[in-house]
Amino acid sequence: MDFKEIKELIKIFDKSGLSKLKIKDEDFEIALQKGFDTQTTPAQPQTQVVQPQIAPANAISTETKEEKIESEKKKGEYITSPMVGTFYKAPSPDSPPFVKVGDVVSKGQTIGIIEAMKIFNEIEAEYDCKILEILVEDGQPVEYDMPLFLVERL
Predict the structure, then answer these.
(1) Nearest to 131 by CA among 98, 153, 102, 91
(2) Tens digit of pLDDT for each residue in 28-50?
(3) Domain segments of the chain as ranges
(4) What is the number of other CB atoms lying within 10 angstroms of the CB of residue 152?
(5) 125-154, pLDDT tens digit by residue?
(6) What is the pTM of this model?
(7) All residues at 6 or more sequence positions from 129 whose CB lies less than 8 Å from its CB, including other chains
(8) What is the chain's Cα-based Rg?
């Protein structure tokens, strides 16, 4: 069958009282259907219930001394992203980063850049602080209010 014949077949099928038509001729096969098949039932969504695991009251903590020290050390304040975009540690790929872990920065000092819609926005320290940790990688996408730096206010 060529294209013209198929178009003509569809016109005739649309005007007919038939709801289904299937034609098979050697390597060619076509199936036409009007409306919905009332005998077919839609697939039901399956849900899976997950039971929460509750540790017994007398369970021993598996947190090691080093992990406790690390979590104590992580206490500080966060400098968060003011927008959605891509974070950069330096003004250009061949430049040194604005800050490194351990640096002491002054209020208003640039500590990173976020590119949003082809515009580069400088991220400035909100107060005098020491950089304890840089929480994002260079070139990483960031969300609004996402923590970028862990700092200790001075």
Answers:
(1) 102
(2) 777 777 765 545 445 544 545 55
(3) 3-33, 76-153
(4) 13
(5) 999 999 999 999 999 999 999 999 999 998
(6) 0.52
(7) 77, 79, 104, 105, 151, 152, 153, 154
(8) 32
Find the distance separating the first CA and the last CA of the chain, reported in whole Å. Answer: 82
Strand duo 85-88 + 141-142: pairing: antiparallel
Most distant CA atoms of the chain, gap in Å: 84
CA distances for 75 relative to 45, 69, 72, 78, 145, angstroms: 44, 10, 6, 9, 18
Q: How far apart are CA 95 and CA 32, in angstroms?
A: 64
User: Per-residue confidence at 63, pLDDT binned at 50, 70, 90?
Assistant: low
- CATH code for the structural domain at 76-153: 2.40.50.100
Cα–Cα distances in angstroms (integers) from residue 116 to residues 80, 87, 121, 127, in the given order: 15, 9, 8, 24
How far is it, in rounded angstroms, from Cα 32 to Cα 39? 17
